[in-house]
Amino acid sequence: MKVSVDADVCYGSGECAFRAPAVFGFEEGYGFVLPGRAESGDDELIRDIAERCPSQAIRIDGKKVTD
């Protein structure tokens, strides 16, 4: 499963990069998925981070993840 960050929705809380620095980065006020880490969507931690994203900008397989 592919994980991505919707740059149009992200407002830069940085939670993703703080909680999973091996998967997410934070630059110029916005989160992003590090190169080569897009296939991390199966990881339970990544799904939890997506569910808790304050702006709901993290997508798994192109969809918002809700609790």
Quick take:
With 67 residues, the chain is of the alpha+beta class. The chain has helices spanning 15-19, 44-52; strands at 3-5, 24-27, 30-33, 58-60, 63-64. The strands form two sheets. The chain has a three-stranded antiparallel β-sheet, covered by helices on one side.
Walk me through the structure.
By secondary structure, the protein is α+β, with helices and mostly antiparallel strands. It contains two helices and five strands, in the order βαββαββ. It has helices at 15-19, 44-52, and strands at 3-5, 24-27, 30-33, 58-60, 63-64. The strands form two sheets. The protein has a three-stranded antiparallel sheet with strand order 1-4-5, with helices on one face. The chain has a two-stranded antiparallel sheet with strand order 2-3. Strand 2 and strand 3 form a beta hairpin. The longest helix is centred in the C-terminal third of the chain and has 9 residues, at 44-52. It starts with a strand and ends with a strand. The model has no long low-confidence stretch (mean pLDDT 93).
Q: What is the global morphology?
A: globular
The helix fraction, in percent, is 10-25%
CATH architecture: 2-Layer Sandwich
What is the residue-averaged pLDDT? Answer: 93
